[in-house]
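#help-structures
NK: newbie question, is this the right format to request a structure? protein is Pirin
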Amino acid sequence: MTATLKAIHALGFHWQTQDPFLFCAHHQDAYPEGKPDLSPVSGLSSRKIGQDFSGKDGWSMYHGSKVPGFPAHPHKGFETVTIVEKGLVDHSDSLGAAGRFGNGDVQWMTAGRGVMHSEMFPLLDEKKKNELHLFQIWLNLPQAKKQVPAHFKMMWKEEIPVAVVRDELGKQTQFKLIAGKLAEQQALAAAPDSYAADPENEVAIWLINAEAGATFTLPAVGEGTDRSLFFYAGERIEIAGMPISEKHSVDFGEQASVTVRTGAQPGYFLYLQGKPIREKVVQHGPFVMNSNQEIQDAVHEFQRTQFGGWPWSSHEHTHPRERGRFAIHADGREEIKD
């Protein structure tokens, strides 16, 4: 038995997801060379600074005024999983934690009872384009976990498991396991209070790269588990006899396995799976709670406390150019990768 196709959606900037996920933002920017201050060499005179989502010349500044990115902003009541396949991200937060990660790394942040953080995209290369390609997945937290302490965890590219599968014709598919299990390979542990930390919730987050003409299988899941496949680059694929063009996602029905066949070009996918939380979701920007009253309480709390305040000199804080990939956690623990 093969799972049926429940729904097909066109992909925009924010991708529609199923419970327990809230959405996925997909960023793909071909930034120009950087200046010594990490800003674009081409200048910013024609951009709507502070709110540039234009994609002009193949890139956006987003909310950054000098360096692209997202200056200090609050999160509460959910988790972010930031997968950076190309480029680097400078993280700073209200707990005093910081880091620079990317080019294959993943950051898993449980906002819980509240945190402020910034995510800036420093243009470190002065001689060639600074490409950025990242996915940021918003994963909900159940009501019982919405007040857990904020925490972030780094999953460095050198440590993330990659499963390689070949079909009957020898065509290869790679599965980068950010959460969940495939055959005998298990992803790294999620953040400690994460919804994904309980295997009963069957949370899986995979990046899948398949050769042209390859066939691969998504395994069967437990009863009630939802799953979606996001086909973000390629030509076309075939699932259950139906052709699907790139930049579409597929939601699956039933629990059976799913067979996917790529066309004349390689296929690139994000796969999300998990048991629904099935609680009311009330969202107000970066606050995700279960009722309007809880949203009002969250906003008032942020206005009163700033979730610990901002310990950095700028809301658009970036790290020194010469620093490689690193993370400094709220408890002072430091990881240095290069």
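mod (FA): yep, format's fine, and the tokens are attached above. The first strand starts at residue 4 and ends at 10.
NK: thank you!
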